[in-house]
From TrEMBL:
It comes from Haoranjiania flava. GO terms for biological process: response to amino acid. One of its GO terms (cellular component) is cytosol. Residues 7-68 form the HTH asnC-type domain. Pfam families: AsnC_trans_reg (PF01037), HTH_AsnC-type (PF13404). InterPro entries: AsnC-type_HTH_dom, Dimeric_a/b-barrel, Tscrpt_reg_AsnC-like, Tscrpt_reg_AsnC/Lrp_C, WH-like_DNA-bd_sf, WH_DNA-bd_sf. It comes from the Bacteria. SUPFAM superfamilies: Dimeric alpha+beta barrel, Winged helix' DNA-binding domain. GO terms for molecular function: sequence-specific DNA binding. The keyword Manganese does not apply. This is Lrp/AsnC ligand binding domain-containing protein.
Amino acid sequence: MSHKLNLDHLDLQIIQSMMENAEISYADLGKRLSVSGGTIHVRIKKLQEFGVVKGTRLAVDMRSLGYDVIAFVGIYLEKSSLYESVANDIKQIPEVIRLNYTTGNYSMFVEIVCKDIIQLKHVLHEQLQNIKGIDRTETLISLEESFRRNPIVYRPN
């Protein structure tokens, strides 16, 4: 889109509220923010069109579903120009839930969620290590996720 998006306090309040509880109805959110549900609807639509809001997701405790291993893998590329092709190959591995292009020691950093250590070994040795352009990897296994939260985009004065 060619025009610039200017977010005002109401937009930021809507974003913050919906990050805390995406199930809230537009009518209830409107009451809380002293505007109509229709206004909330229009603002959400605008935020979606500009790509600020990218749908809603269900927060799930993966361990309660039997996914007991969370690992972070630092990836060293043979050369940085291979990032895009390697990223596309990594995207095909369903156990990889997050990929970041990074500064520092690693070229890339991924988060992997597996049911057990055997599945993690398979992902690392049979899938990740076979991607053309990856020089080597370093794996860190998470012992516990103490907390996870969204950033605060709006703080009332």
